[in-house]
């Protein structure tokens, strides 16, 4: 641009644009003449007091709006800015114009067309709509002559914001106040029923992490979009759902590539998380011991390491140039190096942890006591079963991953026989590889087990998939050769017909209720039958002591 044109563009920032009509006639003429003179679209982001917060000079066919601050974003709130820009031909609002309005939550978008004489001609405008009001997430207003616009854009935005806020309040789930809202998204070629079940589990994970589920979206696709994982049309729908409910987070059931997370965050202006990030966050919240915190930290660092990327791959620590001096180490490379060094230190500390645990296991082995380990899907009731059998008070909550660190208790039977009973971290389908590697020190507790008690939640509608997932993980860990007892917990919640069908699939399974103690006698009998008892002495390194007493009522 010429210096005079640049000064003219800067003067636009000093104007005040009225909400009624959107502009004065003189302002419209000025904008049209300037846009025609430089041969580019010009855009103004105008706040509700009529002050331009930004002037954008685009290309001949479009403008690019840079990233905006999120100062006003919240439940049912719009950006507080409207876009007024020029079109250098008699063209209505483009798809890009409407997409910008949706993703940026603009109060409205308006295009003032400019004719060949550099004069304003027609105003095309649109504003958002609540999703329940129309199948389209926006309304296109009728085209108006540039000098006969009667829309009050400020009042229109305030009214829309009030309506969105009312809808958001009516949609808010009870007991979720003050919690961060998230829209759950699943994109897959799997059957819809499987996708819904997967989202149910994601919703439980979100609740454990402290997120409130505002809405959920399922999209079946033959091929996942490599850039955004789903199409921009669907993204626009999700953006409206987030606006309606005040959600600030998109939570994907898929594992997202670093580029996909970055692209989605840039387009939607929302926080973007995937399933792996969520599970890592839950583990970080629940880690209590030094070993648990170390293992979680290592998993987080391994997840973060490949995501510390920038578009410029020329940054390196190479020495070169005049006098052998290179540009030095970049901030990105310093971060990467520190992560590598921290991972190495954690590995050393975890190695010491493994050594100490191996010594403890050797001590228990020397005592001649059988080791029985509880394994199973997360929230299947392993800790509750441990507490019921041993009379302990290990943390047992109705949420995923309440237990991260292995807990060991001694269980005495009236026949003067004893076993070591251990509770371990719960499994989950598609357990992130970073967690599998980091928690190997914890999972190694299972390697010394003489008997595994696989606990399943019989009442869960995905119990078959959960049992399969646990079996697959045990196979991956090389633990599928250890003798195993399958326990169907929470049997008191089962309908009789469903229970018969489940036992027909797993004829050797033992139905129990860890809470009510029903059915535990057959389980104890099976443990006594299959545990390899020896003539050892009492183990002294095991915390806690439980004496088994028969429950008054056995399950029929």
Automatic annotation (TrEMBL):
<dbReference type="GO" id="GO:0005525">
    <property type="term" value="F:GTP binding"/>
</dbReference>
<dbReference type="GO" id="GO:0046872">
    <property type="term" value="F:metal ion binding"/>
</dbReference>
<dbReference type="Pfam" id="PF01926">
    <property type="entry name" value="MMR_HSR1"/>
</dbReference>
<feature type="coiled-coil region">
    <location>
        <begin position="329"/>
        <end position="356"/>
    </location>
</feature>
<feature type="domain" description="Hflx-type G">
    <location>
        <begin position="370"/>
        <end position="535"/>
    </location>
</feature>
<protein>
    <submittedName>
        <fullName>Gtp-binding protein hflx</fullName>
    </submittedName>
</protein>
<dbReference type="InterPro" id="IPR042108">
    <property type="entry name" value="GTPase_HflX_N_sf"/>
</dbReference>
<keyword id="KW-0547">Nucleotide-binding</keyword>
<dbReference type="InterPro" id="IPR016496">
    <property type="entry name" value="GTPase_HflX"/>
</dbReference>
<dbReference type="GO" id="GO:0005737">
    <property type="term" value="C:cytoplasm"/>
</dbReference>
<keyword id="KW-0479">Metal-binding</keyword>
<keyword id="KW-0342">GTP-binding</keyword>
<dbReference type="InterPro" id="IPR030394">
    <property type="entry name" value="G_HFLX_dom"/>
</dbReference>
<dbReference type="InterPro" id="IPR006073">
    <property type="entry name" value="GTP-bd"/>
</dbReference>
<dbReference type="InterPro" id="IPR032305">
    <property type="entry name" value="GTP-bd_M"/>
</dbReference>
<keyword id="KW-0175">Coiled coil</keyword>
<dbReference type="InterPro" id="IPR027417">
    <property type="entry name" value="P-loop_NTPase"/>
</dbReference>
<dbReference type="Pfam" id="PF13167">
    <property type="entry name" value="GTP-bdg_N"/>
</dbReference>
<keyword id="KW-0963">Cytoplasm</keyword>
<dbReference type="Pfam" id="PF16360">
    <property type="entry name" value="GTP-bdg_M"/>
</dbReference>
<dbReference type="GO" id="GO:0043022">
    <property type="term" value="F:ribosome binding"/>
</dbReference>
<dbReference type="InterPro" id="IPR025121">
    <property type="entry name" value="GTPase_HflX_N"/>
</dbReference>
<keyword id="KW-0460">Magnesium</keyword>
